[in-house]
Amino acid sequence: MEQQQVIWYDGELVPWSSAQTHITSYGLMLGIGFFEAFRCFETKDGPALFRVDDHLRRLHESGHTYLRTFPYSSEQLKAACKEVVRANGLSECYLRVLVFLGEGANPATTPFRTAVIATTAGPYVNEPDANGFHAKISNVQRPAPSALPFTAKATGQYLNASLALIDALAGGYDSAILLNQSGHVVDGYIHNIFAVRRGVLRTPPVSSGALAGITRDTVLRVAEELDIPVEVEDILPAELYNADEVFLTGTQAGIMPIASVDRRKVGDGKPGAVARALSAAVDDVVHGRTQAHADWLEPV
Ligand code: PMP
User: Fold this and answer.
1) Residue 105 C-alpha to ligand 1 middle, in angstroms?
2) Is CATH 3.20.10.10 correct for 133-287?
3) pTM
4) Is the beta carbon of 174 within 6 A of some atom in ligand 1?
5) How many CB atoms lie within 10 A of CB 117?
6) Alpha carbon of 277 to ligand 1 centroid (Å)
7) Domains of the chain: which residue ranges?
8) CATH topology classification for 6-119
9) Series of mean pLDDT values for 10-residue runs along the chain (300 residues)
């Protein structure tokens, strides 16, 4: 992660190295925190935040799901994002809004702290080879929604993802795909998942336990515009083995082809035509080269 000059922290811009929290913070001890990650893209009208309103709505919905209220509204956080991009002199960047529990007497009453962090690159990238990731269907399942509500983006939930990833890496793979307790495919460890079979684009429903990813939604909307048939339905592991294409999506990864699943080559093992067409179309949208989704771009 490349260090920048300033971070927005609890209402003010502070030098990067001063954005600290006490070691006893409940955000560290108990993993109680919520976050969003999204991108700022260069457009012909200058830098623009991509789908920032959707990300900030999801942040507040995550808090609501966990019976928590945050100190700053979406409007305040949006203004903070713009301030951080400008103050660091960035054009294209990766932004994270983190709301976590600080130090205090009791995790039910301790106030949240809020940071907006801009970097030029995202964390957690495992470099795939040129053709894409080699993924393992993990033995680590997504927890039942009654145990952890996966529609929320909460920091502690990522222990489950981390376990699946570390296990996949130890087995010589470079990414993990997770199933739910019914044996249906849910997602990648920090990505949504899509399969293409005979020209039809398929992705599991949110009811499978998948996060309602903003990139997932962008891909679904752009696919419709490209006249690619779409089905949002449960997917079984063997469908991935026999798909023509499988790819992961996320703010961090974009559209990331999977070359193999459990050592079965997917299609011809190379990025497929549907993934490539969608990548090109989404790239035009995020850089404002088409008017189709101008409302998704918020000028900084
Ligand atoms: N699923 C999970 C579990 C994730 O952590 C992420 C990353 N936020 C995604 C999907 C992708 O979501 P988005 O496209 O909104 O970044």
Assistant:
1) 32
2) yes
3) 0.96
4) no
5) 22
6) 21
7) 6-119, 133-287
8) D-amino Acid Aminotransferase; Chain A, domain 1 (3.30.470)
9) 91 97 96 97 95 98 96 98 97 96 94 96 54 93 92 96 97 97 97 97 97 98 98 98 97 93 96 95 95 95
